[in-house]
């Protein structure tokens, strides 16, 4: 069972702000569950960690489909992108992160989400 979610529009800050996709902001139990038990195509999920860090903000993919993990720092700048396979343990960003966006597999590449890109939502 999913809790009521807040949906936001994720935009890229290149030369112009461009809408990339809509996502849910995880709250409460959703922060723990993430996309567990989701189908291959799911609504992207934004998880905010309590602090900006590396190892403390590890994620896993138990009972998850393959997905793309886009790690962001406190300024919402992409610091790492990883393709995550099911049942992986302790996926850690290469740089300290404050947020992770979980996207269906292949979407990070399709959307050209790469290190240094600044995202925004409110």
Your description of this structure?
The structure is a single chain. With 122 residues, the protein is mainly beta. It has a single domain, classed as Jelly Rolls (Sandwich), CATH 2.60.120. It has 2 helices and 7 strands. A 7-stranded mixed beta sheet has the order 5-4-6-3-2-1-7, with no helix packed on it. A hairpin with a 5-residue loop joins strand 4 and strand 5. The longest helix is centred in the N-terminal third of the chain and has 5 residues. The model has no long low-confidence stretch (mean pLDDT 91).
Q: Total helix count?
A: 2
Helix percent reads under 10%
CATH superfamily membership, which one?
Protein of unknown function DUF192
- Sequence stretches where pLDDT stays below 50 over 5 or more residues: none
Could you tell me how far the N terminus lies from the C terminus, measured between alpha carbons in angstroms?
25 Å
Give the CATH level 1 class. Mainly Beta
The strand order across the widest sheet is 5-4-6-3-2-1-7
Question: What shape does the CA trace take?
Answer: globular
Q: What is the radius of gyration?
A: 13 Å
At CATH level 3, the topology is Jelly Rolls
Q: What is the structural class?
A: mainly beta
The whole-number mean of residue pLDDT values reads 91
Tell me about the largest β-sheet. 7 strands, mixed
Per DSSP E runs of 2 or more residues, the count of β-strands stands at 7
Encode the helix/strand succession as letters.
Answer: EEHEEEEHE
In terms of DSSP E residues, the strand content is: 35-45%
Number of domains: 1
CATH architecture term: Sandwich
């Amino acid at each position: 069972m999913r809790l009521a979610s807040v949906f936001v529009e994720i935009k890229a800050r290149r030369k112009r702000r461009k809408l990339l996709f809509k996502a849910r902001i995880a709250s409460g139990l959703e922060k723990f569950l993430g996309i567990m038990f989701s189908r291959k195509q799911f609504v992207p999920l934004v998880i905010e960690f309590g602090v900006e860090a590396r190892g403390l903000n590890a994620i896993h993919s138990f009972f998850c489909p393959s997905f793309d993990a886009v790690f962001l720092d406190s300024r919402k700048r992409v610091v790492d992108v990883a393709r995550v396979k099911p049942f992986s343990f302790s996926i850690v960003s290469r740089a300290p992160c404050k947020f992770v966006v979980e996207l269906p597999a292949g979407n990070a590449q399709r959307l050209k989400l790469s290190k240094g890109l600044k995202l925004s939502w409110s």
